[in-house]
Design brief:
By secondary structure, the chain is mainly α. About 45% of the residues lie in helices and about 5% in strands. It has seven helices and five strands; from the N terminus they run H-H-H-E-E-H-H-E-H-H-E-E. The strands form two sheets. The chain has a three-stranded antiparallel beta sheet. Strands 1-2 form a two-stranded antiparallel ribbon. Strand 1 and strand 2 form a beta hairpin. Helix 4 crosses helix 5.
Length: about 170
């Protein structure tokens, strides 16, 4: 088997932390015991230190494990389109809803309502969902960036080369 291929693991019906508890069909661990096993392994092999774990695998400040995970085609990690956050797809979705709610809300509004979108309509849509800004200029700057990002994502297309006017991409 090539070095990057992982063996197919088969659950045995017993918890893999070693406690001996019976576990459900298709499960490796009793509830919470995956973290217990992880902590035990960290203590046993890496003195309980994530830094030692990273160093043992060639990672550290000189070689980013996050970048490696995002770059590896066999790894499901991805980078947030709006910032430097990276993680599993479900983690990215949660992060975006929590840390970039304006973009998420605007994308949903555009998909639900369709039609033509400009900064004023985007500001109104976000305002209808409770988003506020300190001043109009800050609001316009932020929604222009969101509209550009959504265009880059393929959700909307710019229809006027001189102005920030977009339409929902028809699928």
């Amino acid at each position: 088997m090539p070095s990057n291929e992982k063996p197919r693991l088969i659950p045995t019906g017993k918890c893999w932390c070693g406690c001996g508890k019976d576990v459900g069909l298709g499960k490796f661990f009793a509830a919470g015991h995956d973290k217990i096993a992880e902590a035990a392994l960290m203590a046993l092999k890496y003195d309980g230190s994530v830094a030692q774990l990273l160093h043992a695998h060639g990672f550290g400040s000189h070689h980013s494990v996050r970048h490696a995970a995002v770059s590896d085609p066999d790894c499901s990690w991805e980078k947030c389109a709006d910032c430097n956050y990276s993680g599993a797809p479900a983690s990215i979705a949660n992060h975006r809803k929590k840390d970039h709610p304006d973009r998420h809300v605007l994308a949903q509004a555009i998909q639900a309502l369709g039609g033509t979108w400009d900064p004023q309509r985007a500001i109104k849509a976000l305002g209808d969902h409770g988003h506020t800004w300190e001043d109009q200029r800050a609001a316009e700057k932020r929604v222009r960036q969101i509209l550009r990002d959504l265009c880059a994502d393929g959700l909307i297309v710019k229809t006027d080369p001189q102005r920030a006017v977009y339409d929902l991409v028809q699928k």
